[in-house]
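Query structure, 182 tokens:
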């Protein structure tokens, strides 16, 4: 399987018009699926996504009203999602070192209609991603799966473009090696 970046998806949320940042219910209805999608892809475990979404929107209760640009809601939520996912991934790495991690749950993230070969590739990819640092995993998922540019990956990862590129390459090397071995 050759790794090709997915094309940037048009921001459907932006095309639908602005959301009032003070209407938390409307913000949740509109952006919870987006946060859940990014969270599922970053974490690779469906059972952690609901907790991640809850954590992100708890921060949203405190932080959305402070946004100066209502159009920045989506980006702000993405940044908060990445930060929470990073903390979860770092905790998971610690649990794994202590032998307390419960293992991979990727099977639940793959659509049941997906071919057996594609399912196996996704499982191989997430196993490889479990072996790289959280920041490299996040950068790889944002770049290859979410279709973000390196500049966007850098902004979401709170790092320089060069660091974002290096992180993507670290994970890419691990994923490509795992796919060759599979």
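Result returned for the query:
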């Amino acid at each position: 399987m050759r790794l090709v970046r997915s094309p940037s998806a048009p921001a459907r949320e932006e095309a639908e018009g602005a959301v009032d940042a003070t209407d938390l219910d409307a913000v949740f209805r509109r952006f919870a699926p987006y946060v859940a999608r990014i969270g599922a892809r970053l974490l690779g475990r469906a059972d952690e996504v609901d907790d991640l979404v809850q954590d992100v929107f708890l921060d949203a209760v405190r932080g959305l009203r402070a946004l100066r640009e209502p159009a920045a809601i989506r980006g702000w939520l993405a940044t908060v999602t990445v930060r929470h996912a990073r903390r979860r991934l770092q905790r998971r790495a610690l649990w794994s070192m202590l032998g307390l991690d419960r293992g991979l749950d990727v099977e639940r993230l793959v659509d049941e209609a997906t071919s057996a070969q594609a399912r196996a590739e996704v499982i191989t990819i997430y196993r490889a991603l479990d072996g790289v640092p959280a920041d490299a995993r996040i950068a790889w998922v944002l770049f290859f799966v979410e279709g973000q540019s390196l500049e966007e990956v850098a902004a979401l990862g709170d790092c320089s473009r060069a660091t974002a590129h290096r992180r993507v390459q670290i994970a890419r090397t691990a994923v490509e090696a795992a796919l060759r071995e599979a």
